[in-house]
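Structure, all two chains, one model.
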Amino acid sequence: MNEKKTTHQAEIEKAVNAVKAIKDGPRALQIYMDICAKCGTCADQCHVARANPVRRTNPAARSDLIRKLYKQQNSNLFSKIRGLLGGNKSITQEDLETWVRDFYECSGCRRCAVFCPMGIDNSIITRKGRALVHALGMSPKMMKETQAISDKFGNDEGQGYEAFLDAIRFLESELEEEHGIPIKIPVDKVGADILFVPASADLISFPETQMGVATFFHATGMSWTMSSEGFDGANFGLFTGDDAHMKRKNKVLHDASLKLKVKKLVIGECGHAYRIAKRIGGTFYWGNDIPYEITNIFILADEELRKGYLKIDPTKNQEPVTYHDPCNFARSTGITEEPRTLLKACVTDFREMTPNRQKNWCCGGGGGLAVMDSKEEVKQNEVTFMDYRMNVGGKMKLEQIKATGAKYVAAPCANCKRQLMHLMDYHKMDVKVGGVFDLFDKAVILKK
Amino acid sequence: MIEIKFFVGQLMPYFTALVFLIGITYKVSKWIKAPQGKITLYPASSTQIEKWKRIAKEVLVFQGLFEGNKPLWFGTWIFHASLALIIIGHFRVVTDFPLIWSALGMGKEDIDTISAVLGGGAGIIILIMGVYLLFRRLTVEKVKEISDGEDYFTLFLILAIIITGDIMRFITHFDLTLSREYFSALFTFQKATLPADQVFLLHYFLGQVLIIYIPFSKFLHIPGVFLSKSIIYQE
């Protein structure tokens, strides 16, 4: 019992010190600790707080978990006065256990930041909270396990070389069957112009997207390759707040790009992967003089479409289609128009969701939630993450999709896809969920 | 009473000014020196000019809030706009500006009329909006649940300053020549005697408490909002 108490004491101390260290941390976090006016606007604009309006889902209240501890740790006179006014709070072991749940109930979608009059991005505080529980080994099981697998295999699926090649061969045979001509997916081709990296889930769970991308490269005649070592752009370090893991995982892509001597590293239908490759890792980790450019498949597709030579028959996709802006594309990397250009070229009935683009509602599976189904060994978690995702996190999205009347939701993100598929199943909606390139694959007319 | 007046009128103002200036300078310079990775929130501004235009728009008309929360936007924008008018008006409490008035071709009556309409109007409107913001904090659940003593303290402090100010304008009709004499002595570090007005004493004291409180509280949003917006708008 005593020993247990001491461990708890040590954990609390570690958490407290991490919060204390914010005072010399990144500028944004420092400012966010000071300037929140508690106006409640974030709660109005959060899909979780809308669906389940209780105190713990209120973004400002969640951020206050850290903010109040931070203020309590500042031992000046004003802090003491604030303490009398109820603005400070210390923590216990039980608090830390609820923190895991609280910080994983925020999907880090950044929608609140679009509207916050103070410019506070609560996702930064959420990630700090997650980093803190991760350092204590308290992250949800799925997060810890996926990181361990990823560190070992270089991809989240735990695929070795042979399994990867099998998956590629399978896709190639499917492609040939569908188009009647061989469409290659080159692997480890040194000197290709492009290294293409999807989220590895696209190879196994959502193969139509990967097939569409292969068809796109075939139709455009671009010189491309995939890497048997770096074929997973997903990176759980962004979810857990584990910067060291994020850098290790990003290095796999960097190394593969160098090894294959490519001119471009092109990230696939995964806003999360693109955000890390382009805005967090990439030149920020490996220097501005890296010998390859980092871009996204939608940017390439947009450029090629504009040239006008691609022949596409949109009547192949006549069902009503809507587009879900993944948070990491719309809000964190600024890709909103390119996927729409491609979609509109490939379908006859495109319908916008409202709101959309940077104001789009999160699918409810962001921030890694989509891969969590059980209680994930998170203590003080009343419901499974699955229940939470279906009834709370996905509620706004469900209503939004219903309102469009669409029969196909294109969501270029493995996380969003998984969440939306579950959501449609759970609520017995007759709506298919897939990627954007899935539809391109059906509509493109190839030269035989 | 003499001791209180001496403290509030002769000692506290210098202390207030020092705490405010040092506090704000310390905080802002600490923020600016802190490292910051890119956390751009798209759509971003590609040039500095474009970015600062956007920030100016945010700060002047509360664009994001207008889109995100209209009732609050209405209350708080009018509150802040009235506050801006009132702060500008308070320059006349400190000194007179005969050169500006003559350049504009306005006489003393004109100035007093403008002051009565704009200043008096702002004084009433800000009181109404302040009460509305307090009412909102007490009744709207999502705001109430995140409010603590500090949030109420700031609101009550501001309301007390507004009410004492309004009393001087509408009931006791405070004579500005008295405060101008006082401030001209204060600014030249001479013996400065506060006007013999109890309401003025209270208003002036609370105003200084507010200014001292700024570098230690959520009032840091005044300098902070420029920096925090700048971080997320920057491409």
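Residues 263 and 292 of chain A are 5 Å apart (CA to CA).
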